[in-house]
Specification:
six-stranded mixed beta sheet; Arc Repressor Mutant, subunit A; four-stranded antiparallel beta sheet; alpha/beta; Rossmann fold; 2 domains; globular
Length: about 270
């Protein structure tokens, strides 16, 4: 499947028939080959249908909603395993929807969310991550990259069966509750996105070890993740912000990657 440079074109290219303009579309049947479902909120009919087709052809059940009202209605019927959310929607800004998702009690608040945006400045990306996004992709994007990123998120969705079995992982002031997907700092809860949680968990399993950016990408994002090492830096930045006075626990090793301060004294690099 080739990359589609047309995804994310300007409004004059937007169209689609009247049938699809304000209708939630479902592709595939059952829960898909992966057993997990994706909701894609995008008001551009052509982009929405193209992405849904690409996902389902890859064995992923995907349902599309053109606006916030349709998304609300879909969530009322069934909670998805991953949400792909466009920022620039006609009725409600995508970041506002994201904030509502994160503040909703129950399973929905823990669902991984990827933001789709035509804005690719560092500030815009940080705003999305700060609002609770786990991942982001900028327009125009290729279908192969979109499918790859969604697959990586599905592997780490809360209900995915391949996770580790420990209930709590503790190191100094930090404790990760894997059942609640929550970070506790001296017993006080700190909200993390799915990706921030997985990143910190991997580092806490390797205290005192220098972890290269490539190693972190491989083990936290997955082999088929299409992004670069800058993704790691952005997530470390937001993680440090949330750690507050404990931010210096995540140490930068120049030219290599990061290390979580811990009891292991060696400076071996995990490449």
């Amino acid at each position: 499947m080739r990359a589609c440079a047309g995804v994310g074109r300007s409004p004059e290219h937007r169209g689609g028939g009247a049938q699809g303009s304000r209708r939630a579309l479902r592709f595939g049947c059952g829960r898909g080959a992966l057993g997990l479902a994706v909701y894609y909120v995008e008001d551009d009919d052509n982009i929405r249908q193209l992405v849904l087709y690409a996902l389902t052809q890859s064995g992923i059940q995907a349902e599309g909603q053109p606006d916030d009202a349709a998304f609300r209605a879909a969530c009322a019927k069934s909670i998805p395993d991953v949400v792909v959310l466009d920022i620039m929607l006609p009725d409600v800004d995508g970041l506002e929807i994201l904030k509502r998702i994160r503040s909703t009690p129950g399973k929905l608040s823990r669902v991984p969310v990827m933001m789709v945006t035509a804005k690719n400045s560092e500030l815009d990306i940080v705003r999305a991550l700060d609002a609770g996004a786990d991942e982001y992709i900028t327009k125009p994007f290729g279908m192969m990259e979109m499918v790859s990123r969604v697959r990586a998120m599905l592997r780490r969705a809360p209900d995915w069966g391949g996770g580790r079995c420990e209930d709590v992982l503790s190191l100094g002031a930090l404790s990760l509750d894997f059942q609640a997907r929550e970070l506790l700092v001296y017993g006080a809860p700190v909200a993390l996105t799915m990706r921030e949680f997985d990143l910190l968990a991997y580092m806490m399993r390797h205290p005192g070890v220098v972890l290269s950016r490539e190693k972190l990408l491989q083990n936290v994002w997955g082999w088929d993740f299409g992004g670069g090492s800058r993704t790691v830096d952005m997530h470390v930045l937001t993680l440090r912000q949330k750690l507050g006075e404990h931010a210096d626990a995540v140490e930068t090793v120049r030219g290599v990657g990061y290390r979580l301060a811990g009891p292991r004294p060696d400076d071996s690099v995990v490449e």
